[in-house]
Amino acid sequence: MSEVNHNNITNVIVSGKSGAGKQPRIDVLIEELDLDQLSTGDIFRNYLRKFNEYGYDGSLEIFWSDDGQRFIPDDKIAHWLETDKEDVILGMKAKYFVDKGLFVPDYITNALFESYFAKKNYRNQVLDGYPRTPEQSKFLLKLLERHNSKIDFIVLVDNSDERIIKRTVKRRICPECGKIYHLEYKPPKEGRCECGAKVIQRSDDTVEKIRSRLNEFKEKASPAINYLKDNGIPIVTVPGHLEEFTPENIRNSVMNEVKKLY
Predict the structure, then answer these.
(1) Model confidence over 226-250: pLDDT tens digits?
(2) Is the previous residue joined to 131 through a cis bond, with omega within 30 degrees of 0?
(3) Domain residue limits, the chain
(4) Distance CA 115, CA 12 (A)
(5) DSSP codes of every residue in 43-105
(6) Relative to the CA of 180, which of 77, 80, 109, 245 has its CA 20 to 30 Å away?
(7) What number of other Cβ atoms are within 10 A of residue 54's Cβ?
(8) What is 117-163 written as a DSSP string?
């Protein structure tokens, strides 16, 4: 057990370029500090599922106002959907942008995040994938202040672009349960997940799309983290690449840096 008292930790952020190796470090923090993972990807999937399960099959265009370039008021959305359930309405808003392949605006991402974070009482979470823009960082700080919560520190997982590209193109994922494998570091047995499904390569794990994500991190996510740093939240940097990739080495590389804060 680490020397850090998990009872004193409220929330932590883990940030880093896509493919830097965040998940193994998140796993360490979950185990060592008794936290849960709050992933932006999981949040979107949750609300999209809520909307899809509701069964609305009409056009989503009626909920969008071209004049105001925003959604119509929620009471009107509730009228057309014939439900005032927040989860369903939020899911519709997410689906509108996802189906069009558009970037989800900050105000929608913030609303989804706030609703889900509230279910966790704004505490005991490792935030993964949020905040990703300076505007999201500003929103997060105000949200934490309103609910007497805080971010104790940020873990920044550092890795080079070229190493990430080389590593990510060999990543494979189970389409059924979501378990992640790697052809070199964690190969699936005979190409199949433990659940029995055949693993696949994600469509966005190509060199071109990986470089696009790396550039997005530099332009948006990095300034978002710097904003939090400028507002007094400490950052510890841990290596995303280890010469010997073992659970113990990963744990030590994270917790040795975290301990320096305490």
Answers:
(1) 999 999 999 999 999 888 888 999 9
(2) yes
(3) 6-159+217-259
(4) 18
(5) HHHHHHHHHHHHT--S-SGGGEETTTTEEPPHHHHHHHHT---HHHHHHHHHHHHHHHTPPPP
(6) 109
(7) 17
(8) HHHTTT-SEEEES---SHHHHHHHHHHHHHTT----EEEEEE--HHH
At residue 64, what are phi and psi to the nearest 5 degrees?
Answer: -110, 135
- The pTM assigned to this predicted structure is 0.85
What are the DSSP calls for 163-227, one per residue?
Answer: HHHHHHTTEEE-TTT--EEETTTBPPBTTB-TTSPBPB--TT-SHHHHHHHHHHIIIIIHHHHHH
Using DSSP, state whether 111 is helix, strand or coil.
helix
Give per-residue pLDDT as tens, 45-74. 999 999 999 999 999 999 999 876 899 999
- 10-residue mean pLDDT profile of the chain (262 residues): values are 71 94 94 95 93 94 86 95 95 92 90 96 96 97 98 96 90 89 89 94 86 90 96 96 89 94 88
Distance CA 185, CA 174 (A): 16
| Cβ pair 158, 19 in contact under 8 A | no
3-state SS, residue 33: helix
Which tokens hold the place of 228?
Answer: 């939090």
